[in-house]
């Protein structure tokens, strides 16, 4: 009779997640989360920097396009840019680049200021001013009559305002006067007067004749051109008077109000191309020096204006310096 043998199965030991394993898993999870958050923040800063750079590029492009439009036309006229102007405006002979009536003088259509010189100009920044032709060009409808103190032109709109500086010319003579009153419109034609008071005389000199010399009156023929002459100043200003908020690129036409054009412009440096190469404004001391300038090089330092802490990957406002060269159309290269 054989004895039965009873085999006993070993008990299975049940095991759970221990404290050490739990802590290790939590640590790994925290490390992964921290890495993900770091990547997210880095991408966020990179995205903000890209947006800031895009805003700077858009602002600098707008600034250069508007400035170039004015600077390129410095000294331009509807006719021959080489003609000497017969300027009959009363205060033209005493006008200087820094006087309040600087825009009525015609001997220096381009001028710059280095570090100071203009009201509202931020110290250490440069400024530039030009005399340019307005885009609206009209033509005389009839020959000027002897003794006439006005000209009739077409189209009559937009109207000239009183005291506007106006050019009238053909291919022989360029005359500059100030409107005695706002122009009047009859049908498609306009009429603007140039009587004495704001003008030294009521007639224009013939070629090579002195201004307001008796017996030298020149009568412009039909189809002569008429256009407004504008003085434009570009400079860096502090629009709200708080330097910590940043500066802007500003513009002023004639003696009008200051216009904030492009925010975020911290600095503007300008150099001028003459016979000696590019030089600063301080090197140009005479009207002949300024009239020999053929191009202008502008450097704008731009700071992101819409963000104060997220403009770059370092958390600081994004700052870039952009350069642009403008050739003067009305100078012989």
The geometry reads as elongated
- Please, how many domains? 1
Counting DSSP H or I runs of 4 or more residues, the number of helices is 2
Radius of gyration: 35 Å
Number of strands: 17
The rounded distance between the terminal residues' Cα atoms is: 130 Å
Along the chain, the helix and strand elements come as HEEEEEEEEEEEEEEEHEE
Average pLDDT, to the nearest integer? 87
Q: Which ranges are low-confidence, i.e. pLDDT below 50, for 5 or more consecutive residues?
A: 307-311
Helix content, binned percent = 10-25%
- Beta-strand content bin: 25-35%
**Would you tell me the structural class of the helices and strands?**
alpha+beta
How would a textbook summarize the main sheet?
A: 11 strands, mixed
Compile the SSE list and pairings.
Elements: H1 19-72, E1 85-87, E2 110-114, E3 126-140, E4 150-154, E5 165-169, E6 174-178, E7 184-186, E8 189-193, E9 204-205, E10 217-218, E11 225-237, E12 248-253, E13 259-263, E14 265-274, E15 277-279, H2 287-291, E16 295-303, E17 319-327
Parallel strand pairs: 1-6
Antiparallel strand pairs: 2-3, 3-4, 3-11, 4-8, 5-6, 5-11, 7-8, 9-10, 11-12, 12-13, 14-15, 14-16, 16-17
Walk me through this protein's architecture.
The chain has one domain (52-327). 18% of the residues lie in helices and 32% in strands. The chain contains 2 helices and 17 strands. A hairpin with a 2-residue loop joins strand 7 and strand 8 (189-193). Mean pLDDT is 87; it is low at 307-311.
